[in-house]
Hints:
2 domains; 4-stranded antiparallel sheet; alpha+beta; 24% strand; single chain
Amino acid sequence: MVLDDIETPIEPTNLRFLRRLVTVLTAIMIFGVLTVIGLLVIRLNADPTPMVLPEQVTLPDGAVATAFTVGSDWFAVVTETDEILIFDQVTGTLRRTITLD
């Protein structure tokens, strides 16, 4: 048996193009997934930016804080009686009281 007599099939040009395109797109997708995983690992391992909390908050008599949030120039305290107390971040004075129904 002579191996030289066997003809190898000729690959059509458009099939060769599609094969190369799939290979390139697969490599790009692998690179993209690895990049996203790498960025997530870097981002999740980074130290969080510290939140600036006031040293002391003077709440009205009998108010017990259950939650705290900070805005651009204010901070808010949510109390057990479903009131939101909004304080000025610089002076610490009470700006507004919002009662939730």
